[in-house]
Amino acid sequence: MDRKRLVILGGGFAAVSLLRKIDLAYFDVTVVSKRNHFLFTPLLPGSTVGTVEFRSIIEPIRRVRRGVRFVQASAKRLDHMARRVYCREDDSGAAFEIEYDELVIAVGSLTNTFGIPGVAEHALFLKELTDARKLRERIITCLERASVPQTPDDERRRLLHFAVIGGGPTGVEFAAELHDLLVENVSKAYPELAGQVKITLFEAMSSLLGAFDESLREYAARSFRRQGIELRLQSPVAEVGPGWLRLKSGEEVPAGTVVWSSGVQATPFVAQLPFEKDPAGRLIVDPFLRVKSNPDIYAPGDNGAIEGHSLPLTAQVAMQQGKYLAKVMNACARGKEPWAFKFNNLGMLAYVGDNRALADIPKAKLRWRGFLTYLFWRSAYLTRLVSFKNKVLVLFDWIKTSIFGRDLSRF
Prior knowledge:
The protein is an alpha/beta fold. The chain has helices spanning 13-21, 44-47, 61-64, 119-122, 129-146, 153-159, 169-189, 214-227, 268-271, 315-333, 371-384, 388-404, and strands at residues 4-9, 27-33, 37-39, 58-60, 69-72, 74-79, 84-88, 95-99, 102-105, 110-111, 161-165, 198-203, 230-233, 237-241, 244-247, 252-254, 257-260, 264-265, 283-285, 290-291, 294-298, 304-306, 348-353, 356-361, 366-370. The strands form eight sheets. Strands 5-2-1-9-21-20 form a six-stranded mixed β-sheet, with no helix packed on it. Strands 13-12-11-17 form a four-stranded parallel β-sheet. It has a three-stranded antiparallel β-sheet with strand order 6-7-8, with no helix packed on it. The relative contact order is 0.16.
């Protein structure tokens, strides 16, 4: 029978969750994504320091589902009247167009610099695998340069100062992973630098992890202070330069590495779409995740916002929306009526270093913390990995790290 032409833009949690469940008997599926792999972003902070390896947390999209067409390219423009997407292959610049019957826009979001001068030029981000590779290289470079005997004391202190901007889950987990790496390796591999490394986390608000329960936020702050991670709360950043950052108070702080993990914004493709958006630039969708006045276009994940509802920008939401879309589209193809999306809040997890983690599970009214929660955190993420291959690789990475430590090779 004739199948509907379904085009999925993006390769994140929403797109891959939809791709795994869609019924190919009813849909001829084409996936267009600027990267040819799915990235399990919750474990991305650990990849920057070698807790897990880069290839352990990615899965080629071509292997996620057989029988679909994949094109590595970026969507540039949409003609919703003609039901046509205009795309470009990033390496060669080759342009092409794809026609669709139904379109799913799941291109995610970008890190928001809030227009602060110097952030885009001098800070490092933690959104993609390429960002994690740059961070690992920078960390090792700073350690090696600081260990050179002729390095002046002021320059050594600057190189060994790691500044993390943003007290959300990404910033907190990266600071925790970095602390584990430095505590484990500096005294052994760089004994001359022992006691000189400094990690500072800057947050504009009055507490870390604003979406978590207050008791867990306080536990995270106490854990960081016990580990020697300096917290600078209510300290918004005004400018970032080459080797320094300036706070709104006027204080200038030298730092060898500045990691920016504060907020998200719409992608250029979503920003130029002629559809109604919320103040954050996200496409406004109805309870069925359809773009307003365009029932053949869906926007799950970070680039969509259900009108009248506020959902967190997390992998959990995107994953549930992708699965929901697959079920609804399959049901509609069989002649059934759709039903509204309902978010099932399974809770939030965060690693805070030193084999300790947080778990905030509102539905069960559970507020866990400590070592046992750390084991729960690892097991929960392990079960969410896409493929059996990823599960095995990540598990072996964790075992390898616990036995042999993290690798500081530079290549």
